[in-house]
Write a structure and sequence with these properties.
Number of helices: 2
Largest sheet: none
Radius of gyration: 14 Å
Keywords: Coiled coil
Helix content: over 70%
Pfam families: DUF465
Order of helices and strands: HH
Number of strands: 0
Structural class: mainly alpha
Protein name: DUF465 domain-containing protein
Distance between the termini: 22 Å
């Protein structure tokens, strides 16, 4: 998969996780365990995107 396509895919997943986090957080009794899991996954995706965007030094 080309780099730009990989980053775009990660961005889509990141946005979907953000929507799921907002949905869960807006519930009267949010599931804290699920929220934490979603936030960890969102952070993992963000870190992967940043890693792919950062030029590599040789």
């Amino acid at each position: 998969m080309p780099l730009n396509a990989r980053i775009a895919s990660l961005e889509e997943r990141h946005a979907a996780l953000e929507r799921r986090i907002l949905d869960e957080d807006s519930r009267p009794r949010p599931n804290d365990i699920e929220l934490a899991r979603l936030k960890r996954e969102k952070l993992r995706l963000k870190e992967e995107m940043e890693k792919l965007r950062t030029p590599r030094m040789h």
